[in-house]
Design brief:
It contains 18 helices and 15 strands. It is an alpha+beta fold. The protein binds manganese (II) ion (MN).
Amino acid sequence: MQHLQESIQKVEKEILQEKKKEEVKGLLSEMKKIGIEKLPYSYSALKRFIDPETMNVHYNKHYKGYVNKLNKLIQKRKGDDDLEKIIRNISRFPKGVRNNAGGAFNHALFWNMLTPEEMEIGPEIKSRIIKDFTSIDKFKKEFSKIATDRFGSGWVWVVLTKKGTLKIMSTPNQDNPLMNVIEDGGFPILGLDVWEHAYYLKYKNRRDEYIKNFWTVVNWKFVEDMYKMKTESNLIQEQSFRHLINESKSSFCTKTETEFYRILMQNKAIKNIYSSGIRDILKKTFKNNWKPATREEMSGIYELEIFPSDEKGRSIINKLDTNYSVLCFFVKDLNRVLRSQGIDELNFFTSPANQEKEIKRMLNYIEQWNTRIFDPNSAIFKHIFEVLTKKHQIGENREDFAKKIISKNLPDSVVNKVGRLGSKEDAFKKIDMEVTINGETKKAQVKGFMELIPSDGKIVVTGAGDTVKYLNIDWMIFVNLQQKKVVIFENTGNVVMGNYVFDENAMIYNLS
Ligand code: MN
């Protein structure tokens, strides 16, 4: 227990230090950068496969070189660039990006596909291999042949095809089977670098020997996880690698990392376990501030903040159950402590059944350590509070902006913000705003959005955050503060994979 307290305190200190650093650097420019994947073992750990000198140069010079050049090339682009997104849409980028993004992505995968541990082939991937290649031996033979035959620099891959079968293929230079310029590609679950820089120092021209020794260091657990995730998981394809290869070293979560947890919470069973678990923990932790529901207000935590005298009321902490930035922060924060204790880290990069187990395990840790996490003087708690307050403030800004734009464009309308934090309108009915035009009042929910994408008579609204289908609402009002746009739909849409989808004719106003 003593150890644990120390670890937690250390983590808190690191958080404070990092926070200062982050503020100086400017979050935005940092978030755009493609990160360098940490080597999961020492340079000498894979000796039976490769010598420490090669490993060192390969990692520090070749791999980091690709990442740094890539960051220079994409520096001036607008918006979020995610490495996997670049790879999947590589045809849209100039030539230089293809080689460097490929190099960055391939090597990030490669480091994770190797391990110093001696591993048995996992059961599911094994039976798939036998189905597709008749035996492990034949599979290895075919892989070795394609690797030996690769002319010049390139990679050999085991990919999962759209049909769910395995295929061995090779790509030239730093191309990856996920690139949209590769014909008959697939989802890579194992790969081998057959550039001379990967083996020449140790093996000279004996590539076949390099390939033979490769089998002694394959991380079959990674391969099995990848395979199972692709065949069992309900996460959309685009999310697949992100958690694994883009985890930033900061305690704070990037947009991409938070997005992973937002998508994870599209699974209703998992979301219910998490949200109700968090509410239970809050109720226990702040039992003196917990109030049952009244006519006007929901049950929850009240008067926790020192409000300005006239604004005593429902605490912002009640929003914790649906805030995915904080969920992501919890995972990273708990994992640091678990890692330092040698306990298995929380891992949501797995099948839905296991994700459910992991959410429960996480809630147990939060409960176990609740006096530290929810200590009003701790750095962790202050951070949580800040995130929730900021998100709430953005919501307020959106509503103010929507009110301004609607009033400007529709001079005969009356717009009222309703649903003070914690009131029944806010919490139960989810009404943010009422718009009255020609004597008719529409109840509205206000959300942010990123893009409107027309598709087959439908419009997909992306980036709306926590996507829920609302019942007592007439209008869905979407606001993009950067583009200064307000788009209003009838509340007839559906939620598909974390986005709202409406019929074209459900759009009532497109204002700016
Ligand atoms: Mn290489």
